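writing this on my phone so excuse typos. first protein, seq and then structure
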Amino acid sequence: MEEGFHDSRGDHVQMYVLARENFSNFLAYMECHHRSEMMKPDALLKTAIFEKTDSQKNKKSEEKKTKEMLLMHQKSTGRFGAENR
């Protein structure tokens, strides 16, 4: 069974997987302790994740630009690869 608690003060959703027979004990515990059970990534981890994502986006953008420039060059010179050599 899955149960989740939503933090209305932020972008935080945490899921738990447990056996159905433990559900009532789990809910009773979480009603009192759910704030202490939240796992929030620290600022350094968030920064590293965002930097990696930005780096990947920039790499894809550069690859696309390179392909577009190559295609434009091939069109302007009439060369479209090894088969035309």
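second protein below, same order as before
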Amino acid sequence: MTPAEIKELAREIAREVVVEQRRQELAAYDTTLDFDQMAKVQRAKMRELKRAKGGQ
């Protein structure tokens, strides 16, 4: 391989690494949103149960 080919290959690998990192960050963010949404639903259910039992 010539130095130019090696340099181009290194650039391609770097691009792939960055793309994968971004994908993982977005996946982690989506999971966080899912957990937040589930927590909101759980809190709403608890409020409804308290209301149904005559609590505040």
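The longest helix spans residues 3-52. thats all i got for now
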